[in-house]
UniProtKB/TrEMBL annotation, chain A:
Keywords: Signal. Pfam families: PCuAC. The keyword ATP-binding does not apply. Residues 1-30 form the signal peptide. This is Copper chaperone PCu(A)C. The keyword Electron transport does not apply. InterPro entries: LpqE-like, Lxx211020-like, PCuAC_sf. Transmembrane segments: none annotated. The lineage of its organism: Bacteria, Bacillati, Actinomycetota, Actinomycetes, Micrococcales. It comes from Agromyces lapidis.
TrEMBL record, chain B:
One of its GO terms (molecular function) is peroxidase activity. Its cofactor is heme b. It comes from the Bacteria. Residues 229-407 form the Dyp-type peroxidase C-terminal domain. Residues 76-217 form the Dyp-type peroxidase N-terminal domain. It comes from Agromyces lapidis. This is Dyp-type peroxidase. Keywords: Heme, Iron, Metal-binding, Oxidoreductase, Peroxidase, Signal. PANTHER family: DEFERROCHELATASE, DEFERROCHELATASE/PEROXIDASE. Residues 291-310 are annotated as: Disordered. The keyword Iron applies. InterPro entries: Dimeric_a/b-barrel, Dyp_perox_C, Dyp_perox_N, Dyp_peroxidase, TAT_signal.
Length: 177, 418
């Protein structure tokens, strides 16, 4: 089956990074690019591809990464994320509390079932980027490193897009994103 | 939006087809009843052929919506593309703070949107992705005004500036100029509306809408492909036009590359030409045909029988006047210089009439040429000096854009400039 991933320069770079990384045990930095022996088959990161990734533009504060995590291997748990673009990245879910949609950290991470696609989307699960290092403007690219339960990692290069939605509240009532 | 593994345009179109097949089966109820009856009686073979028949019918029924024009390529789509039924031209002005780096970011986003939505795939962060699944030959063509090229730090071709003032012009400020042109074309108006919305949302932090013009032709499938458009005066409009794909077309339209960033691109002139339909009503057919120099029915020159017959400007009436008047549009628009030709790809417009009137109609005259000053301007000067059709037509808008070359997958339109 044909999958459309590498359409943008950003996604092209992301894919290149993924291809590089799939052979690297636990390398968090795509630019490191060491091409270790391909023991990748056993790694969680090697079975995941990220499609349609994008980050909502923001001047400061926080924003989020969205996209589709396609798992072509066995069950995998996404346990964390990190990026140079923000002080902190967390896995968040959105739940209805007292009639309003609120975001909160997902305990235990996201379970990515074998053969399934797990969507990160506004109003639902997403990777929250908090304490932005600087403005993220439309057309920029952000690299986010995803970490899986076995310690393997995957770099996602996502273009930044303007987006009016994804304004869910935090539990403490602060408007996010 | 729920996304399934491999949730690509391919599988979505398959889904679309599946849905259409169900609808098609419902619509073709007689056929369906026969097929089902046959399937019950005849077993598996009959069922298979019934399914094939239903799929074929569905394919025919949704052919217009499914059709795709490739986005990536050496040249931008939307010029050689056989004109779609609907067009929208949107000019934007860059915000004051937008510099070359911001222009690059903007073009990457917009080009990626276009690459996806023209192929029947939702752009990233599309809030109405279902509206993106019917490409209907959607094309998105980008054009750069003088302001954008200068802001990007590039060299503008000499012709990238407002056209010289013509005596017949009554230009209105709201239909002129612009830094960035988005030209959308598709055979479905909802597709055009959604694509325009998506692109404008993504352009919003860089630029504001200066003007937006909508045009239409006959619906897809309503007439034989390759037919010359009839404008709202009832004239075949665009009979003499270079044929895309020919060496003649390539030489007339595509830019050879000075400045280099424009190699494989072209120029576009968009003129909004108001047509006085009420005044035209007062002219009888002989007068109308004399004004144009062509027969209204066939589009043939007054000296010929068929649309594409060559006019005979030497032919005289029994009393000694030229059959094709020296004042006619046909005579005046014809140059003796072979290179003074352009490629026209116009659209009709028909908007809400102003107070008391019953029409605000005209032509979105879009022409493409390698060099505006060498090709378009001499023709327009002649028509400005004399053309009986000027009696009923008034240019009220004018804009000139450089159309950059296309891009390959992974690239973006404008990458040769900025």
């Amino acid at each position: 089956m044909q999958r459309h991933t590498a359409i943008t320069p950003a996604l092209g770079a992301a894919l290149a990074a993924l291809l590089l990384l799939s052979g690297c045990a636990g390398t968090a930095d795509a630019a490191g690019g060491e091409t270790a022996a391909p023991t990748a088959a056993a790694e969680a990161a090697a079975s995941i591809t990220v499609e349609e990734a994008w980050v909502k533009a923001a001047d400061d504060g926080m924003t989020a990464l969205f996209g589709d995590l396609v798992n072509e291997g066995a069950d995998v748990t996404l346990v964390g994320a990190a990026t140079d673009a923000a002080e902190m990245a967390e896995l968040h879910e959105t739940v209805e509390t007292d009639g309003t949609m609120q975001m909160r950290q997902k305990e235990g991470g996201f379970e990515l079932a074998a053969g399934e696609t797990f969507s990160l989307e506004p109003g639902a699960n997403h990777v929250m980027l908090m304490g932005l290092a600087g403005p993220l403007q439309a057309g920029d690219e952000v690299t986010v490193t995803l970490e899986f339960g076995d310690g393997s990692t995957l770099d996602v290069v996502a273009p930044v897009k303007d987006y009016a939605g994804a304004n869910e509240q935090y539990d403490d009532g602060h408007e996010a994103h | 939006m729920a996304r399934e593994p491999g949730g690509s345009g391919f599988s979505r179109r398959q889904l679309l087809l599946g849905g259409a097949a169900a609808a098609g089966a419902g619509a073709a109820s007689v056929l369906g009843a026969q097929a089902i009856g046959g399937a019950l009686a005849g077993g598996a073979n009959a069922a298979a052929s019934a399914a094939a028949e239903a799929a074929a019918a569905a394919a025919r029924e949704t052919a217009v919506g499914e059709a795709i024009v490739p986005y990536h390529g050496a040249r931008q789509a939307g010029i050689e593309t056989p004109p779609q039924a609907y067009a929208r031209y949107i000019a934007l002005d860059l915000a004051p703070e937008v510099d070359a780096a911001a222009i690059r970011r903007m073009l990457r986003v917009l080009s990626d949107d276009a690459a996806r939505i023209t192929q029947g795939r939702a752009p990233l962060a599309d809030t109405e992705p279902e509206l993106a699944l019917m490409p209907a030959r959607l094309t998105v063509t980008f054009g750069f005004g003088q302001g954008l090229v200068e802001r990007a730090g590039g060299t503008a071709p000499t012709w990238l500036r407002p056209l010289p003032a013509f005596g017949i012009d009554r230009l209105r400020p709201e239909w002129n100029g612009g830094d960035l042109l988005l030209h959308l074309g598709a055979d479905d108006p909802v597709t055009v509306a959604h694509a325009a919305r998506m692109l404008l949302k993504d352009a919003r932090s860089f630029a504001s809408v200066r003007w937006s013009q909508q045009g239409f032709r006959r619906a897809a499938g309503a007439e034989a492909s390759g037919s010359t458009m009839r404008n709202l005066f009832g004239q075949l409009d665009g009979t003499v036009n270079p044929a895309p794909g020919t060496a003649d077309f390539d030489e007339l339209v595509w830019h050879a590359g000075d400045p280099a960033w424009l190699a494989g691109g072209t120029s576009m002139v968009l003129r909004r030409i108001a047509m006085d339909l009420d005044g035209w009503d007062r002219v009888d057919r002989p007068g109308r045909e004399a004004a144009v120099g062509r027969k209204l029915g066939s589009g043939a020159p007054l000296t010929g029988e068929r649309e594409h017959d060559e006019p005979d400007f030497e032919a005289l009436t029994p009393v000694g006047f030229p059959v094709i008047g020296d004042f006619s549009h046909l005579r005046r628009s014809r140059s003796e210089v072979p290179g003074e030709r352009i490629f026209r790809r116009g659209y009709n417009y028909d908007e809400s009439p102003a107070d008391g009137g019953i029409s605000d109609a005209g032509l979105l005259f879009a022409s493409y040429q390698a060099d505006v000053d060498r090709q378009f301007v001499p023709i327009q000067r002649r028509l400005d000096e004399l053309d009986l059709l000027n009696e009923w037509t008034t240019p009220i808008g004018s804009a000139v854009f450089a159309i950059p070359p296309g891009c390959a997958e992974g690239g973006y339109v404008g990458e040769t400039l900025v």
